[in-house]
Amino acid sequence: MRSRPEELRDRTKAFALRVIRLFRSLPYKTDTQVLGKQLLRCGTSVAANYRAVCRARSKAEFIARLGIAAEEADEAVLWLELLIESGILKSEMTVGLLKEARELAAILTASRQTARKAA
Q1: Is 66 exposed, middle or buried (0-12, 13-18, 19+ CB in 10 A)?
Q2: Selecting from 3.40.440.10, 1.20.1440.60, 3.30.1330.10, 3.30.70.100, what CATH number does the domain 4-118 have?
Q3: What is the pTM of this model?
């Protein structure tokens, strides 16, 4: 049985891979590529920053990195919403990815709040 941190590490990595695949499927138009690159940056950053959370050397670093990961997940929600609402992507294509971004943002935000209370 895997620990919760290991599960979340795998989940954030899987999210990053899904974002990469979505980016590769986007049409090569200026507006689409600008929005897509923003999503690519923050979507992969969620996984990178969560890995840093797992290696934190202090409680303060742990809390700070959780905050960054939560912010990046929330930013991914924004870029996905913009891609959908602008008509670049159909919502049916991204509903699962958007749901996962929202869930990761909520989990990371709640984890940060819990850690701050315990500090």
Answers
A1: buried
A2: 1.20.1440.60
A3: 0.94
